[in-house]
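BUG-474 | component: ligand-complex export | severity: low

The export step for flavin-adenine dinucleotide jobs runs without errors, but we want the raw record kept on the ticket for reference. Input record follows.
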Amino acid sequence: MSEQSYDVVVIGSGPAGYVAAIKAAQLGLSVACVEQWQDEKGKAVVGGTCLNVGCIPSKALLDSSHKFAEARDDFAVHGIGVDKPSMDVPAMLARKDKIVKQLTGGVSSLFKHNGVTTIVGRGKVLAGAKVEVTDADGNVSVVDAGNVIIAAGSLPIEIPPAPVDNEYIVDSTGALEFSEIPEKLGVIGAGVIGLELGSVWSRLGSEVVLLEALDSFLPMMDHQIAKETGKIFKKQGLDIRLGARVTAAEVKDKQVHVTYSTSDGEQHLTFDRLIVCVGRRPRSEELLASDSGVTLDERGFIYVNDFCATEAPHVYAVGDVVRGPMLAHKGSEEGVMVAERIAGKPAQLNYDCIPSVVYTHPEVAAVGKTEQELKADGVPYKAGVFPFAASGRALAANDSDGMVKILAHEETDRILGCHIVGPSAADLVQQVVIAMEFGSSAEDLALMVFGHPTLSEAVHEAALAVDGHAIHIA
Ligand code: FAD
């Protein structure tokens, strides 16, 4: 056993861990990042789920498939004639892989540039803020850390009725690698990841059925926006079946035979491929020595306070492995906060202002409270809604499905939430995130000058609509 020593040892190099490591190094601390994922040459694969099998590759495929669908379905309306477009799936996958390589290579370079040491191996937190590292050959060493930041992330949840075989039944990672377009594709789970991956293959021509056990569609979203989103997806041909609980999936003759139950009884469907997207669980097993002092909550998340400190002194945890939305930007900002607190700065994170996005087309994006949450909390509120059908820019782009909805406090006018389904919703909602961080009222947004013609004008009009003063709707 050898012993090395750093001010900070980060376990995991996903967006929570690598950002924490870089920030800590920028603040003058000596930093090592332990990563278990390695390539065939034994080199660390950095970037975690997000860069390798999550946010980035899924967006690469979403963008490729969107361009294909536009060429096939939308160019004609602009007067553009194209012969029937074709899709070279291996070329699409190769482009995705190139982007992943570029970005993970970028993280490695940033580690070098900032003097972060990468240690390849599996990290385990020992008592007294020490980290045990086991390499691929089973060699064990102990790293002495002034502070430990656990950023071990999450894994897809598996369900017994549909065991992943990585050929016919896959999880989200496998769904990024189909070498050809499945004619019939089943997706278990109509949540964010299921909708994004279902959209990719649907745009390319798959007949997609999403089986969702819950009775409501996107229940965490504002109900009005979720309803509108459901209508738009239906128009696009996504077959979303709610209240459909999968009870069995069996591969026979190169097809997946799925049994599911609804209020009407047992149903059967056959697919060429099945994606299981029922959520993710924290990767907290085999991570903590029994005397580490770090505790888990009842769902297996590492227990932390508002500042991401665990119950063990000098041990922090950030990202998907702790409570809160499983989003890359949430993890990254937690990483920054923890690095700054270790360096003695009074950093904190505003958990009320974290945007969430579904990167379908159109996108669905939200920040803050939903209308149903405000009702349940008894908060007096007013709502302003503006449809993209009344936006000159959206019409010019032939992309006018959806709406912007802003919720503000009835008495103070302070913005409490914004919910958007529509073109560039992810970027538009960010404007309201900024406004909310500055404690803006809906009137503040209404009084600002927005460029014309822009999609942002829909945000302006929704803010005006909060007091019934939108210009471009009756
Ligand atoms: P991870 O990214 O999971 O990284 C954890 C790292 O820790 C991994 O590299 C793992 O190998 C390593 N590790 C684990 N245990 C150990 C150990 N004991 N020792 C050493 N190393 C260890 N989020 C968004 O915000 N936007 C999106 O558009 C988006 N799209 C997504 C699409 C898909 C298909 C998926 C699956 C996820 C998506 N997410 C998205 C979620 C996002 O990927 C996660 O929220 C994010 O990656 C979490 O970051 P993290 O650093 O906490 O963990």
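Assignee comment: Attached the raw record above. The CA atoms of residues 337 and 349 lie 7 Å apart.
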